[in-house]
Structure prediction request, 306 residues.
Amino acid sequence: MNETNSSSTEAWLTLEKLEDFVGDPGVVHAAALLLGLAAILFGRRFPQLLAAVAATSLGLWVALLVQNRQHFDEPAFGIVKLPHGVWLPVVAGMLAAICAAALTYFTWRAALVLLTAGIIVLVAVATCRLFDVSPERIFRMGASLLSAYRIVGAVVLILAIFTSVLLVRRFNEHMVSFASANLGTLLLLSGISYFAQRNGTDAPFSLLDDLARIMSEVRGGRCKLWEAGDQENSGLRGCDCNEQCRVEIIAWMASSITVLTGRYMIWRFNRDNKKKDEDERAPLADNPEIPTSEAPEPALIGKNRA
Prediction:
């Protein structure tokens, strides 16, 4: 019995199995799917939940960036060689999530500004991908210019921060709705796409992972090699955005617009019902459609006027 228990315990608690579980892309996309559902369904009504989703999503994003650079032996900051092991992306993601949660707890508006600006950056990068605006293809000056994606992201981020500051001050609830809709649909569609293709594709495509690979710059100098070895040029390995990649991006943008439009229609419906109910309960004396001379005079029933 002791030998049986020890063997079963080792089978569950070995480091290799734990690393396989934590580093499994299925686990990451399952978490993304659940976070996306939570952001879409409850993010607008419960800003605290949106803050938790945003912090966790940032942790997943940082973990993907570190994992990509680690997998392709790309040094961090150009000089720091990253050690191997799944512990590094996990630790980096946890630290990023904790810092984001702390920022949200102490300064919610600042966190909302950064969240909105980050989403705008992702939309800008995805738009570049949609129209195949590849810096390497445009400038023809070498793979090092793939970093122009980062330059575009940095410029958009600075402009988006200033714009978001003004918008959050005046339209706080609307910015919460914008952030939850875009973040939620990105996570949800990435998870759905991954699991829908997992049974039929060796390397399922995920827009979340694709954007992470672009921002981590692991594709620099590998485009020609991947395109030569992969004639189908799947969105996961190639540098150009193929049909599947475009479908993902268009679906993300269309879904975000659909969610925002649906929320607006629900708000209009509730507002009209509320106004109608208030009009029905209002006294006739306050009705502007009835002339003052014809309005009924208030009277007390059972009161002795003498």
